[in-house]
Amino acid sequence: MKYHLVSGGCGFVGRNVAKYLYRTTQDTIIIVDDLSVGTNPSEWIAVEDTFGTNQANRTEGNIEYWGEGDRVVFWKGDFRRFLLHALEKPSWLKDTFGVTRFSDVFHFAAIVGGRAKIDGDPMMVALDLAIDAEFFFWAVRHKPERVMYPSSSAAYPVDLQKETDHIALSESDIDFDHGRLGQPDMTYGWSKLTGEYLARIAAAHYDLSVTCIRPFSGYGEDQDLSYPVPAIAARAAGKETPFEVWGTGKQGRDFVHIEDCIECMLFAMDHIKDGSAINIGSGKVTSFLEIIDIFTDFAGYKPPIKTLLDKPVGVHARYANMDYVFNELGWKPRIGLVEGMRRVYDQAVRNLEKK
Ligand SMILES: NC(=O)c1ccc[n+]([C@@H]2O[C@H](COP(=O)([O-])OP(=O)(O)OC[C@H]3O[C@@H](n4cnc5c(N)ncnc54)[C@H](O)[C@@H]3O)[C@@H](O)[C@H]2O)c1
């Protein structure tokens, strides 16, 4: 029997990974989340019907058991407390979950939020430094078979993403080996850059198999409305007029659907063990005005645009150079922009009908 651990497993990426592992393996998946942002399994399990029920099989203290054979175990609480228990009492994982050694560990517990959080409460986001440090401290002692650390495109130097001067960001634009690191995006980017550094140390000094990824703008049907894609879709479904956009709307991102993200992440874990990172993106930049255009096309109307120039917008253009992943590793996304946005829009319409 294999056991996988998904920290932040009730968040956007984490719950999609948990569902994927449940569907594609017979393994036990242990989810840890404090629900500060994430949603209780009863909500997403019921929505997706992955486990065929919206009731936990049983609950013991802060632990819920879900799915056939209790294969999904949800430990509700702060991941740092979970790690502390595991460090203080070596038999705790075995006594509580029957785990001697985890197979794959996905570390998604983090304070993320959209642009409003990154710029609005940077010291809260900086707590990710503490979560990541405690995570790697535990991981090099527990020695799971493999570790996934999600870095972010926010780790890239912001001076490569300016309006007047931007490039498609390549993995080598962060170069730990030669000490060429730029200024990442706020405390969020710094924590991700530091997390990557810890991942490399864990691999080189403790022989841990670690894979890092730098997802660009992941989006999907069940993403929180604090993120632009589902928020714009919901407003288009409600036929907002005039249509508000943060900043000029000319700022652009590289959008990648969550299903592609997960596929690429698992693919990367089979190929990368030394803590180095790969991009996950489409290689294309799309402005927020273009995203609004796509959604209002779906909704069948063309509203005037109202720019909200006092809102935080972040860097001007953030998009991936996917040459290494496409050509050397041989992975490509399957879900095109319009198809992915259509899925999000259809979900937004369903949500509106439920209200
Ligand atoms: N979504 C993307 O496009 C994207 C892009 C780049 C990187 N990432 C990275 O992927 C990871 C997951 O992102 P997400 O989009 O799913 O974010 P999310 O906010 O939806 O998920 C994070 C989860 O962690 C939980 N959490 C936070 N602090 C915790 C703690 N101390 N203990 C236990 N649980 C805690 C939250 O409740 C939430 O469920 C993050 O590290 C993020 O930086 C995501």
Notes on the protein architecture:
- With 355 residues, the protein is an alpha/beta fold.
- It has a domain of 244 residues: NAD(P)-binding Rossmann-like Domain (Rossmann fold, 3-Layer(aba) Sandwich), CATH 3.40.50.720.
- Helix content is 41%, strand content 18%.
- The strands form four sheets. It has a nine-stranded mixed sheet. A three-stranded mixed sheet has the order 14-11-16. Strands 9-12 form a two-stranded parallel sheet.
- Strand 4 and strand 5 form a beta hairpin.
- Helix 3 packs parallel to helix 7, helix 7 runs parallel beside helix 8 and helix 9 packs parallel to helix 11.
- The chain starts with a strand and ends with a helix.
- The structure holds nicotinamide-adenine-dinucleotide (NAD).
